[in-house]
Amino acid sequence: MDVLDAVVIGAGQAGLSTSYHLTRRQVPHVVLDADDRPGGAWQHRWDALTMHDVHRVADLPGLDVPPDVGTERANTFVPAYFADYERRFDLPVVRPVRVVRVEDRDGLLLTTADDGRTWTSRSLVNATGTWTRPFVPHYPGQETFAGEQLHTVEYPGPEHFRGRRVLVVGGGASAVQFLGAIAPIAASVVWTTRREPVWSTAEFTPEVGREVVAKVEERVRQGLPPRSVVSVTGLRLREQEREAERLGVYAARRPMFARIEPGGVRWAPPIDGVSFAPVDVILWATGFRPAIEHLAPLHLRSPRGGIQLDGTTAVADPRVQLVGYGPSASTIGANRAGRDAARAVMQLVAQ
């Protein structure tokens, strides 16, 4: 039986960063990726998303992101960068491999794919992100809605909503961006959130960034489910959203409705005298959950609902590293986490 020092699951930013550091240190490992080609979650983003629209993509270690003019489609530009990265550093990526289970076998970790293939290793680095686990809350009457319901993962671009009555649900950065693109061309737009949005105009300095990461880190250190970085930083409007702001879309945000009906949504009691909004499309910008179901046999969850981490190491099983989870769920954070996870793997193997 061949035993690897590490198995890395996922070939997005966090997984590639981890593999780079493991490769440099000549640690025998494999990277299992569920997609047919390089690019991580970026390859699944909507065609209308350009490099001008995205938040900064951090350079992977050892290779800078090539310059762009802003008009390039993000779902081709970033995957091309990732593919070049895999080739240049000869990273041991195997695809497509859809991992369904990781379990303990006599002190080693057995990783099983949906086609029956298995890999045995001394450690595991989970870098599966969240894109494959979209979250849509349930509201009374949701199944009766006669219009169209879409989640962020299915967003087809703003033209799909031209001339239609649109409801955007969610209080994160994606909802703000969707409203900015849709409001100028839709027949009407209603924005609903569970909580009052928190806006920020303060400059995002390195000091602020460190403070934000520390707050998110504290949650996973306590074993709580991770929260998004935006929940700490607040929401910001970019130049692309100024027209929607002028139209009053953001200022007219409404609390969540009580139920969904075939032709729209209803508030009970009415809000500001309005009890019903006719809707053709509901766009659920309600976020994602970590894709970690395959880790269930390892019993990593704490009683508080999340996976407790010490750095990137799972407290419940130090053989397991989580990158792209909690404070490392950003391109910059993923790079740092990849480096830290590789160091932790080396220490474990040395023991």
Structural summary, described in words:
With 351 residues, this protein is of the alpha/beta class. The chain has two domains: 3-132 and 288-350, FAD/NAD(P)-binding domain, CATH 3.50.50; 142-199 and 235-284, 3-Layer(bba) Sandwich (FAD/NAD(P)-binding domain). 23% of the residues lie in helices and 23% in strands. The strands form four sheets. Strands 1, 2, 3, 4, 5, 6 and 17 form a seven-stranded mixed β-sheet that branches. It has a five-stranded parallel β-sheet with strand order 7-14-8-9-10, covered by helices on one side. A three-stranded antiparallel β-sheet has the order 11-12-13, with no helix packed on it. The longest helix has 20 residues, at 331-350. The radius of gyration is 22 Å and the shape is globular.
Architecture blueprint of SSEs:
Layout: E1 3-9, H1 13-24, E2 29-32, H2 74-88, E3 93-94, E4 99-105, E5 108-113, E6 118-126, E7 148-151, E8 165-169, H3 173-182, E9 188-193, H4 206-221, H5 230-233, H6 242-246, E10 254-255, E11 259-261, E12 264-271, E13 274-278, E14 281-284, E15 309-310, E16 313-314, E17 320-322, H7 331-350
Parallel strand pairs: 1-2, 1-6, 2-3, 6-17, 7-14, 8-9, 8-14, 9-10
Antiparallel strand pairs: 4-5, 5-6, 11-12, 12-13, 15-16
Helix pairs in contact: 1-7
